[in-house]
UniProtKB/TrEMBL annotation:
Gene name of the record: atpH
Location(s) in or outside the cell: Cell membrane; Membrane
A Pfam short name: OSCP
Membrane topology of the entry: Peripheral membrane protein
Stated name of the protein: ATP synthase subunit delta
Organism ancestry: Bacteria, Pseudomonadati, Pseudomonadota, Betaproteobacteria, Burkholderiales
Length: 179
């Protein structure tokens, strides 16, 4: 089976083109896609979508009914299309691809910051300021805490990873000593 990102890309591109000039804005659509990704990523929902006793219309109604807000026509059409094509499991990737397209249009990117300890807003802002200079992009942050890093941070911006964690330094030291 093809990778989900490969399957998701045409759906995301089609949705993006249809809502690009929507008066509600791309931030609204990112929220809609985030909701769809959360609902469609639930194991119980995926199990229900695979039930052969349900028709496509029932699957579509079930999935759209689980979203806590009224879906716009374009989103409802997307849900019906992925249900019809048996691609519900790709909806989280569609949302991710949609966000990448939005970031590309806005000249921004997502900085996934993983820290050994919780960071306050001032620390995140200072880190983002330095990263924005380095990458030449306006960055949005997503901060998570991973105590296994021991200390420092790991930042992923697109395909670029900057790892200044103690864990990475210890691994590099181990590799140097083993060589």
């Amino acid at each position: 089976m093809a990778e989900l990102s490969t399957i998701a890309r045409p759906y995301a591109e089609a949705l993006f083109e249809s809502v690009r000039d929507d008066a509600r804005g791309l931030e609204y659509w990112s929220g809609v896609m985030s909701l769809l990704a959360q609902v469609s990523g639930m194991p119980d929902v995926l199990e229900a979508m695979a039930d052969p006793r349900l028709s496509d219309a029932q699957r579509t109604g079930l999935l759209t009914g689980l979203v806590p807000q009224e879906l716009p026509a374009q989103a409802a059409n997307l849900v019906a299309l992925v249900v019809e094509n048996g691609r519900v499991q790709a909806l989280p990737q569609v949302a991710e691809q949609f966000e990448l397209l939005r970031n590309q249009l806005e000249g921004t990117a997502l900085a996934r910051i993983t820290s050994a300890y919780p960071l306050d807003d001032a620390q995140v802002a200072a880190l983002l300021q330095g990263l924005e200079r380095k990458f030449g992009l306006k960055l949005k942050s997503q901060v998570t805490v991973d105590p296994e890093l021991i200390g420092g941070v790991r930042v992923a911006v697109g395909d670029h990873v900057l790892d200044t964690s103690v864990q990475a330094r210890l691994a590099a030291l181990r590799d140097t000593l083993a060589a």
